Request: fold
Amino acid sequence: MQKIIQLYIALGMFNFIQGQEFKNLKIDVLVTQLSYSVKDIKPVYHNSKMYYVNTNDNSRLFSKKFEVAYPFFKKSALVKNNGKYGIVDLKGNYLVQPIHDTFSLAPYEHECYIVIFNKNNIFDLNRAQKTDSYTICEEYALPERYFFKGENEKYGVKKEDSIIINARYDTIFTVDSKFIIASMNEKIGVIDNNDNRLIDFIYDDLIYSKDESFQYTYPVFGLKKDEEWVYFKNGTKIIESPYNCTSFTTSLKNSIGIFTTKGKKNILFKNGSTLNNSYDFISENGLVGIRNNKVFLINSDGSEQLYYKQ
Reply:
């Protein structure tokens, strides 16, 4: 059996560019906020400045321009001007003057609308007002089902303390509420929580993504037989493809995952198509790509929009 690849996707973590600045632009902030921001207001780059557009009629939201314009939330957005950070509302008025040298976001990705300038200046972009509280800790969910090793050196599955699948598998890679990926006789297959086979044990290799913190396995995964990858969602076949996806956390509609070919990143879709262009970097959620020192917003139809360039 070949080496199995498992990708742990921790909340708020992206690949190598996470936490770094693209000169004036913080890529990790852009990537995180795009997933949770409103979709009908879009930042646009033109002549070294950025402004906001209402995508419903392609009109300018207001005339003011910025060095960097981050995604808009319900009532306000984070911007950068003259090297300083501030907050603007839907009319372009500054709610927080651009006087801050730096900022951070609340510690959990789903709270990326909380901008922290300092301990006395915390701003809620959704409500367009200051706030003095945000989540500082969360309890990770304990797994309802988990695998165990029996006295026979084989593996099975328990729910709480009760055995629901007897220990008869060589390996159990992951246990999800809808599928269990396991191996038997050096071949990989998939069963459900009643030990019924969803996918025959005929595959030699496996790749899947998992958020270990919250015990969540992403529903799309790949199994390889001979030289062909077969992609499944919750155990149901989607497509066969020669492309070896290495992440399944993309949020683009009908996307399967990110793959690399000739050193460039691209995204595979359920109909077998790929993006119109390849990139040096694609964020784990598939929404941001970087190519030739330019940052692009990626669309589900395979097209791109220039967001920022050096």
